[in-house]
Amino acid sequence: MPGRYCVTRLTKKLFGQRIFEKMMKMTFYGQFVAGEDHNAIKPLIRKNRAFGVGAVLDYSVEEDLTQEEAEKKEMDSCVSEAERESPDADQREKKYKAHRQFGDRRGGVISARTYFYADEAKCDTQMETFLNCIKASGGASADGFSAIKMTALGRPQFLLQFSEVLVKWRRFFNFLAAQQGKSEMMLLEQKLELDELKESLAKMGLGAKDDIGNWFSGEKLGLSGAIDLLDWNSLINNTTKISNLLMVPNLKTGQLEPLLKTFTAEEESQMKRMLQRVDILANHAVEHGVRLMVDAEQTYFQPAISRLTLEMQRKFNREKPIIFNTYQCYLKEAYDNVTMDIELSRREGWYFGAKLVRGAYMYQERDRAKEIGYEDPINPDYEATNRMYHKCLEYVLEEIDNSRKANVMVASHNEDTVKFTLEKMNEMGLSPTENKVYFGQLLGMCDQISFPLGQAGFPVYKYVPYGPVNEVIPYLSRRAQENRGFMKGSQRERSLLWRELKRRLLSGQVVYRPSY
């Protein structure tokens, strides 16, 4: 990304730091960023709150790295010692390995901030930043959200490896379902007959039939005489030695094998510390009465991110929704993921929390899949993504209607999606005062959606980036490349603003007082 920040650097050089910062605050920074720290953002949060609009706080500082620096950091942090010593010794899948040409994860990404691993001390610093953000959110309002990113909290090598394990275990279940003639069924309708499953696994050499039976001897596993994918997923659980999680079935040899032959003591420790940081943040959110949104990331990290978020939900969402997972509806598997997680929440009795987005990594994901050689995970076109979004949303709304234990944030700038949600809520008799369905837009965008919703009593939130001017420039410079959809939205917003200004002048109501 050569020259990405040339204009801002030249402006700073010409005018000096102080004038540069004033210019930014009067223009681009002032439009999309709330302020430099948690004290500076309070006036904007109070003003929005007066119009019924809440905040999802998001500390948007990024390192100003060159492409070469970003690629080096990514390769250093995603390749294990074992892989460096014997690059071809382990049968890793291409999708879940680091590739230098896609090492700079900022490429083709506009609105999502990006973290690159430096060391454990840097992860601790970023955790402290998130803790301060949670505290600021709790102090700003009684119903706030705070956003975190998993890649800020540890070495991404673990996310890559754990994602590959989860995908391979799911694929193994699909293989066994096909053996029992059930591959054409809907995902959650695929139930493996327990006796037949034991026979299959024993024939593959994964253990004696009686030993395999012990795998399914948990409190609820196998009581019905059948195992579905949720039961199967529960076989992968927390153990003292984190690397024990990274065992995968080898369909050729019929054996369970480690994904990597060896883990160093430091790699084992890094994996544990990442999980500890996540746990600290969740506990802090509970303590301050703040709901925690875990952002979605690239598909080669996402299975691990979703599973870790799910584990937090199982622990912290017992009495109310605290932890929210993010589902990217441009993914072909989005509906399966939503339905699976809702079913698990039903069985275990906890509150399901979701943020639905279309997705931030489409161009990068498509290019990587094509270049490296695996199936494109993205829906074929924008309309397919819209259909997927509405399908997932309708399923969650139906769950809210049935149980009142699900919660969803409709994070969208699409007016048709907002109208679709309002119509469905009206059909189902879901009142906005129940606070089960929230709406979310980015600060500085689509105010013509956010503020009328807030004034009408719907729970609506702005994603509020904040941070020092110089340190959010990398994030803002990508926001400047926002797509044509935003430009259309801004033209519509200008038209609506002009119409409102004329209305006020003609009616004599120049100053508007919010009724909230």
TrEMBL record:
<comment type="function">
    <text>Converts proline to delta-1-pyrroline-5-carboxylate.</text>
</comment>
<dbReference type="GO" id="GO:0004657">
    <property type="term" value="F:proline dehydrogenase activity"/>
</dbReference>
<dbReference type="GO" id="GO:0005759">
    <property type="term" value="C:mitochondrial matrix"/>
</dbReference>
<keyword id="KW-0642">Proline metabolism</keyword>
<feature type="domain" description="Proline dehydrogenase">
    <location>
        <begin position="45"/>
        <end position="485"/>
    </location>
</feature>
<dbReference type="GO" id="GO:0010133">
    <property type="term" value="P:L-proline catabolic process to L-glutamate"/>
</dbReference>
<comment type="similarity">
    <text>Belongs to the proline oxidase family.</text>
</comment>
<dbReference type="Pfam" id="PF01619">
    <property type="entry name" value="Pro_dh"/>
</dbReference>
<feature type="region of interest" description="Disordered">
    <location>
        <begin position="67"/>
        <end position="94"/>
    </location>
</feature>
<keyword id="KW-0809">Transit peptide</keyword>
<dbReference type="InterPro" id="IPR029041">
    <property type="entry name" value="FAD-linked_oxidoreductase-like"/>
</dbReference>
<feature type="compositionally biased region" description="Basic and acidic residues">
    <location>
        <begin position="69"/>
        <end position="93"/>
    </location>
</feature>
<keyword id="KW-0274">FAD</keyword>
<keyword id="KW-0007">Acetylation</keyword>
<keyword id="KW-0496">Mitochondrion</keyword>
<dbReference type="InterPro" id="IPR015659">
    <property type="entry name" value="Proline_oxidase"/>
</dbReference>
<keyword id="KW-0285">Flavoprotein</keyword>
<protein>
    <recommendedName>
        <fullName>Proline dehydrogenase</fullName>
        <ecNumber>1.5.5.2</ecNumber>
    </recommendedName>
</protein>
<dbReference type="GO" id="GO:0071949">
    <property type="term" value="F:FAD binding"/>
</dbReference>
<comment type="pathway">
    <text>Amino-acid degradation; L-proline degradation into L-glutamate; L-glutamate from L-proline: step 1/2.</text>
</comment>
<dbReference type="InterPro" id="IPR002872">
    <property type="entry name" value="Proline_DH_dom"/>
</dbReference>
<keyword id="KW-0560">Oxidoreductase</keyword>
